[in-house]
Amino acid sequence: MIKSSQVSPLRIFWVSALLTILLGAWVAFHGGPVALWLFAVLVVLEVTFSFDNAVINSKILAKLSPFWQKLFLTVGIFFAVFVVRFVLPIFIVMVSSGQSFTSVVDLAINHPAEYSVTLHSVAPLINAFGGTFLVMIGISYFMDRSKDIHWLKRTEKWLSKFGSYKSFKILIMLAVALLLYATTSPEYRVVVLFSSVIGVVLHIALDVFGRFFERRQPKGTQLVGAAAFASFIYLNILDASFSLDGVIGAFAITPDILLIMAGLGAGALWVRSLTVYLVRTGALGKYKYIEHGAHWAILALGIVMLLKLYGIELPEWMVGSLGLVFIVTAVVSSVAEARRGE
After folding, report:
1. Dihedrals φ, ψ of 127, to 5°?
2. I want to staple 227 with a disulfide (CB 3.0 to 4.6 A). Which of 3, 106, 152, 214 is the partner?
3. What does pTM read for this prediction?
4. Cα–Cα distance, 108 to 103 (Å, whole number)
5. Residue-wise pLDDT tens digits, 167-209
6. What residues contact residue 219 under an 8 Å CB cut-off, 6+ apart?
């Protein structure tokens, strides 16, 4: 185990910094100073929006073997930048509109304004799935009877009591799915219900799959094989849940899909590097409540995504800041309690 004092931030972040500079130079060459400014805004937006994602990722990544950690940072980067931020939105538009894949790609590259409108039309599908999946992560963390460390003492102790009933969180989320079906716009009701149920089922399936193989490994060892694969898939689905909503929001900044890919992709690089930094410095152990803050941020983001189904939309900077506020507050609380203990 590398001590935190021996971890050099430069060794971890230099690749992200270099690729960001190269992408920025490409953007400036083709689009000029205005495009470069928008690129910088998109990078900052992605990092602030996904900061809590990095904290959760670091918890899971720390359990994986070095091979799977490297896979997350190499193959995972390709998945995060190209698949999640370009191919997946195109696939969703293709399925919902009935157009061919090549037609939607042409629409995205050559008619970005029209593509933006089409992508916004399928936002209820994305928000219902992403919101449900993220809320499921949040309540699964807090509704845990074995959880004995609480940051927001009264609230978290109260929520942990429901962990005695293993099916309670599933009951809550299915009830939410039915409520969404009954109260959202009639034209989106079936899509919202289907997407919300898929979010619940996918979370349960990944949890069961991961636990099944994890129990077949020696205790205290890093995950390999099928157990590591399940965690790897979970990490990438979590990233997709965060990012798809960000892709839609990015069109409010620019309609240029290539510029959006460059900006959000560079931001994703920084988030992955931040994940590695948190793992190697042991930040989760050093800051007692940072994981709690990240899960409250994820829970809040999930609720924000569900509220969008009713036309309630907060500015992107406010949503991103919400996660940072939770995490920074959790870190400050951790430091303050450590000092009191000393």
Report:
1. -70, -35
2. 214
3. 0.79
4. 9
5. 888 888 889 999 999 999 888 899 899 999 998 888 888 778 7
6. none
